[in-house]
């Protein structure tokens, strides 16, 4: 099978280029958001402790809420990615796979 | 095969029976209840043995042994990844940190979950699409196969060994603390049990052991949380308020912050437990660790290997989503476990058994069941301990499998035999390598007895983040990456991480140890009043030792001398003679025993380090100031890979780019599932 496939041609194929472009922008924006949001936690705890100490609901303070929000954000990013990949990327890839031996 | 399996199992059972005779006095479980512990341990081990027996019957090819025949479903693999990750360090360690230091312990757990975003977005699916069994296979796709397999194998074995040693030592200590089995015996038991899983059942058995263990672990934690949180009607603020009002937590905070506690009300002290800064003091070190976690997890060989066990890239995606749900949910539970243990067991009682707090969750289980004198309490304790034990065995099994596959598949089959090995030869090589690595793990575990190995886990992540991750990442996504860059970058990344740790405060510095011991014995002399002085402090002061760096000095009044343990002991003994009340006498006797213990420890240190002035690297004090090297070693790994790739040419790396990039995105020609 592999001898029939012209990899360079697939790489040049507009459908593959479209998949590559959409995936790249999408992945890197998610990655950047999650990394920045994560590092805000240790930075905030170290340099803005007064902010973290503000009580919002009984003894619950901004720090605890923020740490809990890290979990929510991580899960949300994972869910957004999975949804998008299942709906769009898989279908785009499947089309390329189906025609892979024809693209020359 | 079948015969050898049962012979092995019988030998193991005999070994465990023999270990019962090796029982020393002590441990968290009273002698009266130890049979209960053995019953629960026996049941859980029996269950994993049955799974191994079933798996052994289906393990006949290299793909079965290394990748469970690529027949694991996404959900199953998600549980197995969670099992791999919720090692004793995170299960016992994080609950312990929260029970002793409150907020900081919880904050520490966040990075372990966020790490999976990297795995999900950039590593899991491409690796499944182009990989076969090992890290080496991914790198060899477009780089020189022999060179990249050798360096991948070195890196895999290095990372696994660091992580493995920490697990072995942790496991030995854990079992000894809980039920009092000798350290050596429990290390050997962990080793033999793990070898049985891997040698006979390969990846299939290892996966199922992880799944069983993860389910037990999550069940145990949910039960504990229901009991502890239920007391407060499942109200979150109510639960936190109870922690704030708890006098034992207030006492713990007062102890942690020292002088600053004098002007605080009990309510303020309790609230302080929910605020940052009690454990993690250096923000830069924190960020450095965060980098190692977020990038290192994706480079851990035993995690990477998990993605080769599922049939397709879509299943790899599903497995990370499940793993994130389980791991994240678990860390949220540890907040309740940790605070619950602090309230109900008290930080003092937790530290009395283990200074690092590792016993918080097991002790909470004992409390929830009715305490140290009840059957139910000890049954719960036995259950949590058995799960913790199974955790260590299963994580070690995964690591040994990763190292063994690097040795047999990458080095033996790939490099020595030049890919010309029969199927039978391949699986034999895998089993032989497993036994070698396993024996080595047992040896290292025993040799490292009594050593401080906590930093080895962080070092394993740092090496994975500085060496494996840049190599995999740039191979997958950067067209210009080539063999020279990958090999050079991996060596530079791993080398710099290890070197920086050897120059860091993680090592033992005899002068500091001697001074500490002396302080314990003699106390501290009077400290004269200080005048304020400005800081001479820059970013480089956070990283490197430099005589020109001076922290800001605040004006402080004179501090009186503090007596040492020797002086305190003499006074306590004199006091004891004058006491008549029984309760007061008992308290004094306890205090004397504690003082004598710290004197013996300090005198032991004085003797041990007598005449030494420098660490094993010849330093009197640390040169690199961070405990976690990632902040520097990760950029070094990336930079060296990029620079070497830019200044060299490698035709194969260029030619294979199109194929790699198309295949990693589409899954064309990916290694398929095997039917049984």
UniProtKB/TrEMBL annotation, chain A:
Pfam families: DUF485. The chain crosses the membrane at residues 25-48, 60-82. Keywords: Membrane, Transmembrane, Transmembrane helix. This is DUF485 domain-containing protein. InterPro entries: DUF485 (IPR007436). It comes from the Bacteria.
From TrEMBL, chain B:
Its main location: membrane. Residues 1-24 form the signal peptide. It comes from the Bacteria. One of its GO terms (cellular component) is plasma membrane. The chain crosses the membrane at residues 34-53, 79-100, 106-124, 150-175, 181-200, 212-232, 287-308, 320-343, 379-407, 428-448, 454-477, 484-503, 630-647. Residues 562-612 form a coiled coil. It is found in: Cell membrane. GO terms for molecular function: acetate transmembrane transporter activity; symporter activity. It is a multi-pass membrane protein. GO terms for biological process: plasma membrane acetate transport; sodium ion transport. InterPro entries: Na/Glc_symporter_sf, Na/solute_symporter, Na/solute_symporter_CS, Sodium:Solute_Symporter. Keywords: Cell membrane, Coiled coil, Ion transport, Membrane, Signal, Sodium, Sodium transport, Symport, Transmembrane, Transmembrane helix, Transport. Belongs to the sodium:solute symporter (SSF) (TC 2.A.21) family. This is Sodium/solute symporter.
């Amino acid at each position: 099978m592999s001898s029939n496939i012209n990899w360079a041609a697939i790489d040049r194929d507009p459908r593959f280029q479209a998949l590559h472009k959409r995936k790249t922008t999408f992945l890197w924006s998610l990655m950047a958001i999650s990394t920045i949001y994560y590092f805000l936690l240790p930075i905030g705890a170290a340099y803005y402790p007064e902010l973290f100490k503000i009580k919002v609901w009984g003894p619950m303070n901004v720090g605890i809420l923020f740490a809990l929000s890290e979990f929510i954000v991580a899960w949300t990013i994972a869910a957004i990615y999975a949804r998008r990949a299942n709906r769009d990327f898989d279908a785009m890839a499947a089309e390329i796979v189906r025609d892979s031996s024809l693209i020359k | 095969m079948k015969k050898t399996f049962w012979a092995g199992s019988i030998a193991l059972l005999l070994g465990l029976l023999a270990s019962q005779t090796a029982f020393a006095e002590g441990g968290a479980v009273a002698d009266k209840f130890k049979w209960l512990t053995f019953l629960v341990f026996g049941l859980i081990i029996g269950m994993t043995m049955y799974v191994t027996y079933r798996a052994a019957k289906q393990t006949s090819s290299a793909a079965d042994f290394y990748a469970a025949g690529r027949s694991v479903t996404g959900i199953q693999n998600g549980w197995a990844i969670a099992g791999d990750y919720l090692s004793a360090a995170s299960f016992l360690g994080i609950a312990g940190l929260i029970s002793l230091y409150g907020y900081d312990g919880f904050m520490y757990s966040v990075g372990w979950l966020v790490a999976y975003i990297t795995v999900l977005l950039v590593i899991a699916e491409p690796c499944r699409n182009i990989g076969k069994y090992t890290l080496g296979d991914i790198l060899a796709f477009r780089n020189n196969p022999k060179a990249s397999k050798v360096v991948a194998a070195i890196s895999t074995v290095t990372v696994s060994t660091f992580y493995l040693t920490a697990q072995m030592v942790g496991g030995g200590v854990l079992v000894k603390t809980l039920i009092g089995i000798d350290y050596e015996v429990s290390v050997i038991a962990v080793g033999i049990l793990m070898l049985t899983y891997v040698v006979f059942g390969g990846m299939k058995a290892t996966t199922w052991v992880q799944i069983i263990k993860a389910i037990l672990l999550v069940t145990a934690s949910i039960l504990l949380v229901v009991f502890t949180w239920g007391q407060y009607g499942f109200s979150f603020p109510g639960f936190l308020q109870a922690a704030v009002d708890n006098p034992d937590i207030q006492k713990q905070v007062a102890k942690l912050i020292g002088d600053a506690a004098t002007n605080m009300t009990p309510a303020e002290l309790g609230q302080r437990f929910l605020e940052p800064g009690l454990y993690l003091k250096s923000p830069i070190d924190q960020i450095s660790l965060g980098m190692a976690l977020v990038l290192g997890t994706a480079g851990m060989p035993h995690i990477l290997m998990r993605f080769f066990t599922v049939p397709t890239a879509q299943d790899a995606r599903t497995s990370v989503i499940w793993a994130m749900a389980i791991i994240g949910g678990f860390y949220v539970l540890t907040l309740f476990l940790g605070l619950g243990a602090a309230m109900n067991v008290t930080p003092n009682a937790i530290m009395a058994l283990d200074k690092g707090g590792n016993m918080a969750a097991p002790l909470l289980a004992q409390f929830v069941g009715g305490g140290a004198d009840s059957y139910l309490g000890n049954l719960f304790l036995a259950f949590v301990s058995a799960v913790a034990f199974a955790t260590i065995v299963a994580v070690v099994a995964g690591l040994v499998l990763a190292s063994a596959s690097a040795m047999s598949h990458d080095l033996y089959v790939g490099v020595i035999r030049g890919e010309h090995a029969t199927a039978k030869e391949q699986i034999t090589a895998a089993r032989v390598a497993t036994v070698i690595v396993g024996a080595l793990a047992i040896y290292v575990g025993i040799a490292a007895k009594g050593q401080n190995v906590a930093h080895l886990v962080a070092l394993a992540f740092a090496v994975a983040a500085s060496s494996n991750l840049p190599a995999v990442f740039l191979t997958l996504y950067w067209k210009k990456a080539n063999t020279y860059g990958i090999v050079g970058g991996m060596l530079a990344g791993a080398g710099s991480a290890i070197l920086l740790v050897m120059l860091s405060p993680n090592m033992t510095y005899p002068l500091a140890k001697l001074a500490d011991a002396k302080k314990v014995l003699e106390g501290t002399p009077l400290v004269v009043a200080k005048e304020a002085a400005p800081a001479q402090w820059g970013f480089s002061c956070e990283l490197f030792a430099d005589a020109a760096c001076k922290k800001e000095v605040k004006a402080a009044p004179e501090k009186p001398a503090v007596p040492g343990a020797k002086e305190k002991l003499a006074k306590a003994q004199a006091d004891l003679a004058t006491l008549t009340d029984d309760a007061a006498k008992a308290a004094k006797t306890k205090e004397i025993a504690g003082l004598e213990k710290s004197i013996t420890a300090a005198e032991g240190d004085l003797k041990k380090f007598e005449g030494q002035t420098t660490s094993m690297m010849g330093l009197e004090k640390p040169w690199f100031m961070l405990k976690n090297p990632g902040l520097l070693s990760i950029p070094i790994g990336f930079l060296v890979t990029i620079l070497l790739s830019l200044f060299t040419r490698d035709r194969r790396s260029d030619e294979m780019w199109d194929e790699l990039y198309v295949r990693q995105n589409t899954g064309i020609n990916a290694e398929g599932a095997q039917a049984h």
